Each structure stands twice: as structure tokens, then as C-alpha cells.
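2024-03-11 09:14:02 DEBUG pipeline.ingest accepted 1 chain
2024-03-11 09:14:02 DEBUG pipeline.ingest length=236
2024-03-11 09:14:03 DEBUG pipeline.predict start
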Amino acid sequence: MLGVFSSAIVSPPDELVAAGSRTPSPKISAAALVNRFLETNSSALSVQIGDHVQLAFTHANESALQPRSFAAKDDIFCLFEGALDNLGSLKQQYGLAKSANEVVLVIEAYKALRDRAPYPPNHVVGHLEGNFAFIVFDKATSTLFVATDQFAKVPLYWGITADGCVAFSDDANLLKGACGKSLASFPQGCFYSTAVGGLRSYENPKNKITAVPAKEEEIWGAKFMVEGSAVLAATE
């Protein structure tokens, strides 16, 4: 899956900008990245949302245990990969039909969080049990919400394209060819929300998340770590 967002939606993380500046490397534009994804993945589909967002996904080479899904409802768009172990109980909690799948559940959970939840975002994602990564874009509020499971069993990566867009994908090689060294593994045990101001830890949203330069021989430009926690982000 692939989500690409212009700087009008997401401010490129300073750590990834710095990583690309330390070790300049070839990059391509956001449009070229999306075209590359569509050209190299069979049966790939893409969705352009306004002038600043493009989402794409394919069912090619997906795991039977971790399928990919896309859904849109009430101007909320979601890409989801993986499976939730507690989907049944969550569907009851959110009043969903038995036929609802994970991507529909995530949209409903996001809507509840946005509109009426009396608890912070880390509680919402912390209640999702299983292996997953998802990207949610709320067109009505221009809000981005991205998360992986607490142990990053479904990998996710993010980087910055040549024209300053922030891209998220489960394919590290795809982003490597587009983002150069402005690239990192999305930190496990964390979520990213433009509504709350960036990257946060599930365990304690107040824990500081820092990025350290990666070794020259690695494809990453930086590695993110959650301070005050046993969680190490961007594992090998």
C-alpha cells in the first residue's frame, strides 16, 4: 500500500529532512512514485483525493493472513493491511454489522475518536489487537492518522520525495528508490496524527520520540526511538 501527502497536509519530519541532507541521494517526485507503484504492481488501484493526497494499493503478493483493504465513508479514506484478533468484540462495541471488516472498523473507530470519544487517540489504537498497519485520511478536516501494531508485525515505512511530499508504504524498496536517505522504518508502538501534532507512543504519548542517524551502509537515513520505554523503533 502507498499513501502520499503534500506538505499542505503533512509537514515533512525534521529528522527525515536532516537524514537526506546528511547523505544526499537520488529521489523522485510524488507523482513519479505513484506511477512506479502502479506500473510495478499488478491490478494496482489508486485514488486521488483533492490536490494533495493520493492513495494506492494492490492485492498482489499479499499474505492470506494479512490481506490489504481499502474503504471510504463520509469523506474518510482508509488503507489497512493485516488482521485484528478482537474484530468481533470491536464490531459489537462500535455497533457494526457482522459483515464489517477491519478497514470499516478502523474508519468507525476514527470517527468516534474525532466526534465523541472522551479518551485520547492512544487508547483507541491501543485497543486494536493483532497485526496491522493503516493509513486514515479525513478529507473534511485534512487530518492524517497513521499507525502500526505495537510490535510492527506489519511493517510500515515513511520518507520524503523529491518535491517534499511525505510517503508511507509497506514496501521499503519502493520508498528507497523514491526518497533516498530521507527514509525510516515507521516506529513500532507509535501512531502519527496531524491532529495531535505528530508522532506519539502508545505506551505513553508524553514520552519523547527521537531519531538518531543510521549507519551509512543502511538503507535508512534515521532510526526513531521512544525514550523512557523498552520499545525500540525502526528495528533491523
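2024-03-11 09:14:41 DEBUG pipeline.report Confidence is low (pLDDT under 50) at residues 229-236.
2024-03-11 09:14:41 DEBUG pipeline.predict end
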